């Protein structure tokens, strides 16, 4: 942009829109690895392209950091998902390396991109390997030989993901000088407040506002710093019941996904995956590990909104089909397995037909 249009803003905005369009198309392919419905995949991409919470990230020239982070995030996830379908150890390592390379690019664009290996591990655990937490803790629950093979493969991938993710995060921390940025109090009064009760209550209220920006994006603002959001200084605040309701809803989500059960249904695994796409990608923007330089910003929801848009698309597709537990649609990995089985059957049938023809010729 600097070479072509110098300081003219038009070219920067055009590139931002084009990059956002590419990310929206990649969302279609990401959704196909969670649900095999073409309707759900296309609707997820359209919803992600049009969601109002992305206005700040796409309209602001500086929002390109969020767009590039999401772009490399989706590409890295697709590389990892494709690599899990290979039986070759060497091929799997190549795809994992490509995923780590895109993790590095996503992190250098925007720091939340560093959690890509964690999201890949959650997807592999729930949707690809179809494991459960009891099986992961105590392998006595693993009964079939096929499940044992998936368990060993997942542990191998998990070990590589943990080591690679730790190395990338450590390098980023070392490159920053081993320190966190020093922000001004007016930038983030909630995260930098001295009273622990005020800080925790207000940060929890910010979670509710972020959720509202996803579900009902009516009140959006480019700058929430200063006293734009009143702090919660006691339990008597009228917003505390909404915070309690938010955490109750989070507990209900964990209960509905049955992540501790060995008999998880497909729709429960899909819900768990959508939730992990939202929660894991939001962790670094949640004022939990380090305080941020902003109190609230819709642009940080550019990547976490991916899970929400996929959930809405999944719900819409299931509603069109008459229910979420009827005829579960195959995921992309299941489609790949079916395609390989059909190819093996066709090759075996061709070989049998050729042997029959050769035997008939010899007899004649």
Quickly describe the structure.
This protein has 364 residues and is an all-alpha fold.
Structural class: mainly alpha
Largest sheet: none
Rg from alpha-carbon coordinates: 24 Å
Total strand count, please? Answer: 0
**C-alpha end-to-end distance:** 75 Å
Q: How would you describe the overall organization of this protein?
A:
- This protein is an all-alpha fold.
- The chain contains 14 helices and no strands.
- The protein has helices spanning 2-5, 9-32, 38-50, 55-59, 64-83, 89-109, 116-128, 133-137, 145-175, 196-215, 240-257, 266-282, 305-320, 332-363.
Please give a handful of descriptors for the protein shown:
364 residues, mainly alpha, 14 helices, globular
Outline the fold blueprint.
Layout: H1 2-5, H2 9-32, H3 38-50, H4 55-59, H5 64-83, H6 89-109, H7 116-128, H8 133-137, H9 145-175, H10 196-215, H11 240-257, H12 266-282, H13 305-320, H14 332-363
